[in-house]
Design a protein that fits this description.
It contains twelve helices and twelve strands. The chain has 359 residues and is α/β, with parallel strands linked by helices. Strands 2-8-7-6-5-3-4 form a seven-stranded mixed beta sheet, sandwiched between helices. A three-stranded antiparallel beta sheet has the order 9-12-11, with helices on one face. It has a two-stranded parallel ribbon with strand order 1-10. Helix 3 packs parallel to helix 4, helix 3 packs across helix 8 and helix 10 runs parallel beside helix 12. The longest helix is centred in the last third of the chain and has 25 residues. It is globular, with a radius of gyration of 21 Å. The model has no long low-confidence stretch (mean pLDDT 93).
Length: 359
C-alpha cells in the first residue's frame, strides 16, 4: 500500500515565501546590514532593565490582554482600550485583519509594489489579491485603487509611507479616496514608518480613523522604537473590528518581555525623538548625495531609500555586498536601502557612486 502525504490546502500552492533582509556575513567582508529597515541604535533607556526584569518570570504566560500596554497606548493616542488590539508585529495584526474580513471569493486591494507580506497573507486567507500599480512617481495611485473596488472587495491596504519606495499619500487625496470607498469595506492604513515622516501634508491615520468606522490603523514597535526582535505591533480600529482582532489573535502571542519593553519605549519619548531625528537627518544626507551622483530617487519619508534599477538590481546588490553593505533587492525592480549609522551610509554611498560611474 502506497503512502499518501497529508492533504494541505490548495491555496498554498504558489504562495511566495517572505524574503527577510539578508544578514551580514559572519567573518566575511560585509560589515553592515542595510536590508531590513532595522533601527541601528540599542534599546532606549529603561527598556533593557524592563526586559531583564520580565525575563525572570518567563516561565509564566504573559498577560494575554496586554493590559499595561493597552492602557499606555490608550492614554498616548486618546482612544478607548476597546479600540486596540495587539499582535506579533504589525504584520501579525495584518494577517488577523485578513482572517476577520476575507476568504475565498473575496478581494483584497493594495498597491504594488508595496509591503511584500500583503500578497502572502492575502493568498493564505484564500482571497483574491488585486494589485494596483504605483504611479510613475512610485506613489499609490488612489484613484485607480478606488476604481478597482467591486462588490467583492473586503479590505484595502494603504501603506503610508510605502514600503519599499518610501513615498507618501497626502491628506487631500487620502480623504478623497476614503470618501469613495464603500462604508462596508475596511481600509487599513499601514503606518509602520509613521515616526520618520516629516511631510506636514501627510495625515496621522489615527485622526482619520476617529470618525470613519471602516478605517483601521497599523503601527509597530519594530522600526523607530527598535524592538524588531520582540515582535510587538498593534491596531487602532473601531470596536467591532478591534474586538474581532482580539478574538482571532494567537493566545499569548505577545510576550511579556515585548509588552514591558513597548511600555518602557513609549515612556522614553524624548530619547526616541532624538534618535529618529538623527536618522531623518542621515536620510536627507543620503538622498541628497544619491541625487548628486545622478540617481533618480523618490523622496522618502521612511528610514530607507529606494533605487529603481530594473534588470541591474541583482548586480547592484552583489556589488554593494562586496564593498561591505547588504541591501534588499527586489528582483527586476530595484533595491531598498535602510538608513543606518553614518559609517554604514558612507560605505553605501561610496558603492553607489562607483557603480554609477560604471553604468
Amino acid at each position: 500500500m502506497s503512502e499518501k502525504s497529508p492533504k494541505l490546502r490548495a491555496v498554498l500552492d504558489g504562495i511566495p515565501a517572505y524574503v527577510p533582509g539578508k544578514p551580514a556575513a559572519a567573518g566575511g567582508p560585509v560589515a553592515f546590514k542595510l536590508s531590513s529597515n532595522e533601527n541601528p541604535y540599542p534599546p532606549l533607556p529603561g527598556v533593557m532593565e524592563g526586559v531583564i526584569a520580565a525575563a525572570g518570570s518567563f516561565n509564566r504566560y504573559p498577560d494575554m490582554a496586554c493590559t499595561g500596554l493597552m492602557n499606555e497606548l490608550a492614554g498616548r493616542f486618546g482612544v478607548p482600550v476597546s479600540h486596540l488590539a495587539a499582535g506579533t508585529g504589525s504584520v501579525g495584526v495584518a494577517q488577523s485583519l485578513l482572517q476577520v474580513t476575507s476568504g475565498p471569493g473575496d478581494e483584497v486591494i493594495y498597491a504594488w509594489r508595496s509591503f511584500e507580506a500583503y500578497p502572502i497573507i492575502t493568498r493564505i486567507s484564500g482571497a483574491k489579491a488585486v494589485q494596483v500599480p504605483l504611479d510613475s512617481g512610485d506613489v499609490h495611485d488612489l484613484d485607480a485603487m478606488a476604481d478597482a473596488v467591486t462588490e467583492r472587495t473586503r479590505l484595502i491596504f494603504v501603506c503610508n509611507p510605502n514600503n519599499p519606495t518610501g513615498t507618501v499619500v497626502r491628506r487631500a487625496e487620502l480623504e478623497r479616496f476614503l470618501d469613495r470607498v464603500p462604508s462596508d469595506v475596511l481600509v487599513v492604513l499601514d503606518e509602520a514608518y509613521r515616526e520618520f515622516n516629516r511631510d506636514p501634508g501627510v495625515p496621522d491615520g489615527i485622526e482619520l480613523y476617529r470618525d470613519r468606522p471602516n478605517v483601521a490603523v497599523l503601527r509597530t514597535f519594530s522600526k523607530a522604537y527598535g524592538l524588531a526582535g520582540l515582535r510587538v505591533g498593534f491596531a487602532v480600529a473601531h470596536e467591532p473590528v478591534a474586538a474581532a482582532l482580539r478574538k482571532t489573535a494567537v493566545p499569548f502571542g505577545v510576550s511579556q518581555l515585548g509588552q514591558d519593553a513597548a511600555v518602557a519605549s513609549l515612556r522614553a519619548e524624548d530619547e526616541l525623538l532624538g534618535r529618529v531625528g538623527s536618522l531623518v537627518a542621515e536620510r536627507t544626507r543620503v538622498h541628497r548625495a544619491l541625487v548628486e551622483q545622478g540617481w533618480t530617487v523618490p523622496e522618502s519619508q521612511a528610514n530607507f531609500v529606494w533605487l529603481r534599477l530594473g534588470e541591474r538590481t541583482g548586480e547592484f546588490a552583489a556589488f554593494c555586498e562586496k564593498t561591505g553593505v547588504v541591501v534588499r533587492p527586489f528582483a527586476g525592480e530595484g533595491v531598498r536601502v535602510t538608513v543606518g549609522e553614518t559609517e554604514a551610509n558612507d560605505l553605501f554611498l561610496k558603492a553607489a557612486e562607483t557603480f554609477r560611474k560604471e553604468l
